UniProtKB/TrEMBL annotation, chains A, B:
InterPro entries: PhoU (IPR028366), PhoU-like_sf (IPR038078), PhoU_dom (IPR026022). Its main location: cytoplasm. This is Phosphate-specific transport system accessory protein PhoU. The keyword Cytoplasm applies. Belongs to the PhoU family. SUPFAM superfamilies: PhoU-like. Keywords: Cytoplasm, Phosphate transport, Transport. Residues 22-109, 126-209 form the PhoU domain. Pfam families: PhoU. It comes from the Bacteria. It is found in: Cytoplasm. It comes from Novosphingobium cyanobacteriorum.
Length: 229, 229
């Protein structure tokens, strides 16, 4: 009876851990979409909301850390269960960073001059959507414990990287032709880079989901490629 | 006798964990310095060495992860000991990211045209040195379990951030005046940003060292500020 009670308590802890990570992920997804909307619309209130939400994501990461440590201390889980706790801890850390990137994009709203029909800005939403979908789909794969769906997300990262390289080249040409916009376009370069990093982090999560589900690392772990440009 | 044996084995594991983290840190410090040297000298061989070293840093992180999981599984440590293992795991993750930033800087060697006495490039080494010192000093604080030295590192991050803001403004002016250099200066902007992130990550480690040594979180955790520009 004691053993059964312990197993049940452990399952409840894991469910709570996964729930916290899912909550963090939902907030991060929302921030990715809203940060780009705020940038495109020049909407500083929306940007302020994204920045405020990041504090909540940070708090949730703190809760994941504390709960994970308590589970490790009280239940001393083994094998698959231990892996489950460690992976929740690590994914929470990555989702927190994704939230930071969305916040960084939001912080640039207000530093882009002449926003109306500003050509470089029109290139970013499609790239942002790709990266946002990667985050959404990898969190779905985590919830479903689905290593195949996770691996599929990793393959999409090359598309985001190619998008980034193309945007970088386009921005450089634009600055050469429109020197008055250099300051604003430089800001947008960092936005493009932040989006590219969100894609990388979705890939990192996918690797962890794969590890959690199978116990095996994928052959090449967590590389952060510099742009080819 | 069994208990004593277990305590000794645990201490050996922790010493090994800390040794792996120190080894990662030493390699990351070397990469920070060499990436900047490679950039200033236009030395692609040196850059290739930094890029190759990053693979070793990634491997060491994998070893830390595996050892930490084994310690948690076999020894089920409590309280201070548990915190020690979790902090080693987290610091290894951050050092791995610092290695990635150094690698990203190295990857830009070869994309900077007209390197000889290229004015924007002369601004970066001093900033890089500041960030490299933060990494060095926070790892020393970790080795010495010294929360005061760790807190002192955190205070220095504002200097790196101010450096970054000033360099960003300078680069924008330079591009306006020298449109032919825009592509190269844009590369250097990312280098400056990578250095700024290295400073942020040294700060993150400092917070973890403080937590490991005292059991308390510092009031404001792991924020990644966007530049004021």
């Amino acid at each position: 009876m004691v053993a059964e009670h312990t197993v049940k308590a452990f399952d409840e802890d894991i469910t709570r851990l996964r729930g916290l990570v899912a909550e963090m992920g939902g907030l991060a997804e929302l921030s990715i979409a809203e940060a780009m909307d705020a940038l495109v619309q020049g909407n500083e209130d929306l940007a302020a909301g994204v920045i405020a939400r990041d504090k909540r994501i940070d708090q949730l990461e703190g809760e994941v850390d504390k709960l994970a440590v308590r589970v490790l201390a009280l239940r001393a889980p083994m094998a698959d269960d231990l892996r489950e706790v460690i992976v929740a801890l690590k994914i929470a850390g990555v989702v927190e960073r994704i939230g930071d990137y969305a916040k960084n994009i939001a912080k640039r709203v207000g530093h882009i001059e002449g926003r109306k029909r500003f050509e470089p800005l029109t290139l970013l939403p499609a790239m942002n959507e790709l990266a946002g979908e990667m985050v959404h789909d990898v969190l779905t794969a985590y919830a479903a414990r689905d290593p195949v769906a996770a691996t599929e997300v990793i393959q999409r990262d090359a598309k985001v990287d190619a998008f980034y390289d193309s945007i970088f080249r386009n921005f450089v040409s634009y600055m050469v032709e429109n020197p008055a916009t250099i300051s604003s376009v430089a800001q947008l370069m960092f936005v493009a880079r932040n989006i590219e990093r969100i894609g990388d982090h979705a890939t990192n999560i996918a690797e962890m989901v794969h590890f959690a589900a199978t116990g095996n690392y994928l052959p090449d772990r967590g590389d952060v490629p510099a742009p080819a440009v």
